[in-house]
Design goal:
Rossmann fold, GMP Synthetase, Chain A, domain 3, 26% strand, globular, single chain, alpha/beta
Length: 538
């Protein structure tokens, strides 16, 4: 390639945009693998071509810069294309959780103002039910080549085959919005955290620096791409010229995961605690060659310290942790692999395994009281955050945005405290959020469903310790006089109306729920007996 051509092409797109990163990688690492999915191995130049074809297809459909495209699918290669097209083409990607029920998806798809919806093969029947209720959606596209053509879906492969892979005539800017990540609101209604190019680049750059990722690192992607954790890590490896191996399993398979780590000579994997529980339980764990692993990254859910110690004993101090949320971009704090190298050290040094680390580079973290005043070391207060990676705001919800973004500080709703060395510990969730197996469950949403049952008088949903899920939803209920219902009936009742993972895993029947003087149910009192003696109180 002539030098003048290379220099010209490298400067095609504005610095600080994903268009620039994708174009750069295609020119500098053209034959290196960017994504692996099943039998497909896509190079950086091949990925750039796929993204260009998709952008040109969307523009031919009439999708303009700043408009929303949606995706409802399990992880697949096309999912990566969609992120690429949104970030390079100036569109806004709205990824939806495929575990949600039809009524939940109805709300989110309409709320996001999605104009083109990309649907995975397993989700087409769900979307078929919603077709009359999605007036904004003008085009439906079926993902993966194995899907037979049927109305109203256009096959994805047809788009790539029809539209040219030439560089599109676009100039995205750093402050252009590009992704909506969904998070529950104080009323239980999901809200979309809107992220810009600048915010996603800032988080990716910092993460790459803290993880020390390098070209040709190979990341096993088992986390869902609709989640900011799964997608954020994916683009961290892409950013530096590394490869993402996308696993097709919808349900985590520890043996299959270990095999792919071995076969792909993986250097990295992102997990949640339930994954580590399953991996450590494999009877033939020691037979897998995982010697290339440099990092086991965990987030989305707190890791019990005893489980973490077992993980370090098995794999060595290669664990790393991040604490964050969709609104924060996400990384707030970082617990390095060096921080995990505590086996054999005094108990006071091992204690930091129960923390979520220290503030990330470029992130200011304060602990404040109800008046917004800073609290001393060891005192629990609300965690508030300021950085360049914080969301632009909640999509189409200005009042909700004002309630959490105050004077440039994001009020996380999480409660925590610092120790004398600057490690942050999560003490409680101000918003009562439950994190079960890495998935967020908002108690109010579950309670609203429980209250629909004719036998129920009152309900409170709390998170309790779970040996597998780390935390699970537990319903404490009272019944109307003369009424009867079993715990299984109540759980099944919820599963019929919510995504199954949101349904309580256990039910406790009581004669009365504890309340304060104003009549508010005291959930902290309900939790105490379950969390007594636990190192983490979430």
């Amino acid at each position: 390639m002539p030098e003048t051509y290379l220099l010209k092409e490298l400067s095609r797109y504005p610095i600080g945009t994903w268009a620039d990163i994708m174009n750069r990688n295609a020119l500098l690492f053209p034959d290196e693998e960017a994504f692996v999915y099943k039998r497909e191995r896509v190079t950086f130049s091949g990925f750039n071509a796929r993204v260009n074809s998709l952008i040109n297809a969307l523009r031919s459909m009439g999708v303009k810069k700043g408009e929303t495209i949606g995706v409802l699918s399990w992880n697949c290669l096309e999912y990566a294309d969609l992120y690429g097209a949104a970030m390079k083409g100036g569109f806004i990607l709205s990824p939806f959780n495929p575990r949600l029920q039809a009524n939940e998806l109805d709300y989110l798809i309409n709320y996001s103002e999605t104009g083109v919806l990309f649907v995975g093969p397993e989700l087409m029947d769900v979307v078929d039910q919603l077709l009359p209720r999605l007036p904004r959606v003008k085009q439906y596209v079926a993902l993966e080549a194995s899907v037979p053509t049927r109305a109203p879906y256009t096959p994805y492969a047809q788009l790539l085959a029809t539209y040219p892979a030439a560089e599109p005539d676009i100039q995205p800017e750093e402050d252009d919005p590009c992704i909506i990540y969904y998070t529950s609101g104080t009323t239980g209604v999901p809200r979309g955290a809107l992220c810009s190019q600048r915010q996603r680049i800032e988080d990716t750059r910092t993460k790459a620096l803290q993880l020390n990722t390098k070209p040709r690192d190979r990341h096993i992607l088992i986390m869902p791409l609709f989640h900011i954790g799964g997608s954020g890590n994916t683009w961290t490896y892409f950013y530096v010229g590394g490869c993402n191996v996308i696993t097709p399993e919808r349900v985590f398979d520890p043996a299959a995961t270990m095999r792919v780590i071995e076969e792909e000579k993986a250097t990295d994997i992102h997990i949640v605690p339930t994954h580590l529980v399953s991996i450590l339980a494999l009877p033939d764990l020691k037979t897998y060659d995982v010697s290339r692993l440099k990092r086991i990254w965990y987030a989305a859910s707190p890791m019990p310290t005893e489980l973490l110690r077992k993980g370090v004993e098995t794999f060595g101090p290669i664990f790393m942790q991040c604490y964050g949320q969709s609104e924060s971009g996400p990384d707030i704090t970082f617990l390095s692999s060096e921080d995990h190298d505590v086996l054999g050290l005094p108990p006071e040094e091992q204690r930091r395994l129960a923390s979520c680390g220290r503030p990330c580079m470029g992130v200011h973290v304060r602990i404040v009281d109800q008046q917004g005043l800073d609290l001393p070391v060891g005192t629990v207060g609300e965690i508030i955050v300021k950085s360049k990676r914080i969301m632009m705001g909640y999509w189409r919800k200005p009042e909700d945005t004002k309630n959490v973004l105050i004077d440039g500080w994001l009020h996380t709703g999480d409660m925590g405290y610092y120790d004398e060395k600057g490690y942050l510990y999560i003490a409680d969730r101000k918003k009562d959020m439950i994190v079960s197996g890495g998935e967020n469950i908002f108690p109010r949403e579950v309670e609203e469903v429980l209250y629909q049952h004719p036998a129920l008088l009152e309900a409170a949903v709390i998170g309790i310790p779970d040996s597998y899920w780390v935390e699970s939803a537990h319903a404490v209920v009272t019944l109307k006089q003369g009424m009867a219902v079993s715990d299984k009936e109540l759980i099944d009742f919820c599963k019929q109306r919510l995504a199954r993972y949101k349904a309580p895993k256990s039910v406790e029947f009581v004669s009365a729920l504890p309340k304060n003087a104003s009549g508010k149910i005291m959930k902290r009192e309900l939790r105490e007996k379950y969390w007594q003696g636990k190192e983490r109180k979430v």
